[in-house]
Design brief:
- There is one protein chain.
- It contains eight helices and 13 strands.
- The protein is an alpha+beta fold.
- It folds into two domains: 83 residues, Ubiquitin-like (UB roll) (Roll); 236 residues, Creatine Kinase, Chain A, domain 2 (2-Layer Sandwich), CATH 3.30.590.
- The chain starts with a strand and ends in a 5-residue tail after the last helix.
- Helix 1 packs parallel to helix 8 and helix 2 crosses helix 3.
- The strands form two sheets. Strands 6, 7, 8, 9, 10, 11, 12 and 13 form an eight-stranded mixed beta sheet that branches. The protein has a five-stranded mixed beta sheet with strand order 2-1-5-4-3, covered by helices on one side.
- The structure holds adenosine-5'-diphosphate and manganese (II) ion (4 copies).
- One manganese (II) ion binds next to loops.
């Protein structure tokens, strides 16, 4: 069984299964397929075929054996990328800048909800738990919720070869984080999307819903982000800090363009409170969790390393995030 997975028109994932006659060793052995794009908001009803082209495959942690998960790009019948295929251009940008060996590590925050749409474990009837404080990296009943789902997801990602590098319980109860990376170039978007697919799929087994909303509960509750850690070969080498500082100068005038692709509803999260920066102004600083970009203290001390773009919202598309960062720092594609 090959589970063909694609990104739909509303930032979600869809999938359907194809029987293949023998074990598949490489993604090029898999045929192109198609789906009804009018049912997913990706095509008009009178010209509804959208083509799905396999681009990456992973062992299937649920079906086991030779069964696989297949990540696909979406293509229109006229041979152009579908409107929601952000991978195509990002892959070209990564390819054009391969010499910089760009690494990305993303911190995916999310919230688990019960069937009625309220955070899992919160008092019934839309009640609230006690104020934030005991929950971040919490241990014990009443401090963390749904650890079973989180553990199952972590193990599933490891089985599939997704470069998941850790997990932690977040500041708001029923909110969690996992990290993917470091990955090189386009691999980050591929691994992050597969990790999202697995999160939805595994939460489904437990009757829980996953929300990537950047501010799921209004008020004094932390929002959810997708902190994006970035380094190039030059930044990681001796004296790399000057390359990091040069990148900051490039990022500064492009705040508006970046925020445009850093997720929907991000204005409710980037308020300057709850460890966020202001949405209208680019700032950066060492160890500053209230800045748009933070340089980790250890990197400043060593004079090399990476930077953390704290602006992306949890629901942003990793291909769009990593694509615009590369475009801003190294320039766009030649016409
Ligand atoms: P935080 O302290 O912000 O919570 P985390 O430990 O959650 O940080 O996440 C840090 C992320 O940065 C991880 O995904 C890790 O893989 C990534 N990372 C570490 N070093 C680099 C690097 N040189 N370039 C890019 N990403 C990196
Ligand atoms: Mn049918
Ligand atoms: Mn983190
Ligand atoms: Mn976090
Ligand atoms: Mn972070």
């Amino acid at each position: 069984m090959a589970e063909y997975i694609w990104i739909d028109g509303s930032n979600g994932v869809r999938s359907k299964t194809k029987t293949v006659s023998k074990a598949v060793k490489s993604v090029d052995e898999l045929p192109e397929w198609n789906f009804d794009g009018s049912s997913t908001g990706q095509a008009p009803g009178d010209n509804s075929d959208v083509y799905i082209r396999p681009v990456a495959m992973f062992p299937d942690p649920l079906r086991l054996g030779d069964n696989i998960l297949v990540l696909c790009e979406t293509w229109d019948p006229d041979g152009t990328p579908n409107k929601f295929n952000y991978r195509h251009e990002a892959a070209r940008l990564m390819e054009a800048n391969a010499e910089h060996e760009i690494w990305f590590g993303l911190e995916q925050e999310y919230t688990l909800l019960g069937a009625e749409g309220w955070p899992y474990g919160w008092p019934a009837g839309r009640g609230y738990p006690g104020p934030q404080g005991p929950y971040y990296c919490g241990v014990g009943t009443g401090k963390v919720f749904c650890r079973d789902i989180v553990e199952a997801h972590y193990k599933a990602c490891l089985y599939s070869g997704i470069k998941i590098s850790g997990i932690n319980a977040e500041v708001m109860p029923a909110q969690w984080e996992y990290q993917v990376g470091p990955c090189v170039g386009i691999e980050l978007g591929d691994h992050l999307w597969m990790s999202r697919f697995l999160l939805h799929r595994i939460a489904e087994e437990f009757g829980a819903k996953v929300t990537f909303a950047p501010k799921p509960i209004p008020g004094d509750w932390n929002g959810a982000g997708l902190h994006t850690n970035v380094s190039s070969k030059e930044m990681r080498e001796e004296g790399g800090m000057k390359h990091i500082e040069a990148a900051m100068k490039k990022l500064e005038p492009r705040q508006v363009e970046h925020i445009k692709v850093y997720g929907e509803g991000n204005a409710d999260r980037l308020t300057g409170k709850h460890e966020t920066g202001n949405i209208d102004k680019f700032t950066w600083g060492v160890a500053d969790r209230g800045a748009s970009v933070r340089i980790p203290r250890s990197c400043a001390r060593e004079g090399k390393g990476y930077f953390e773009d704290r602006r992306p919202a949890s629901n942003a598309d990793p291909y769009q995030i990593t694509g615009i960062i590369v475009e801003t720092i190294y320039g766009g594609l030649p016409p």
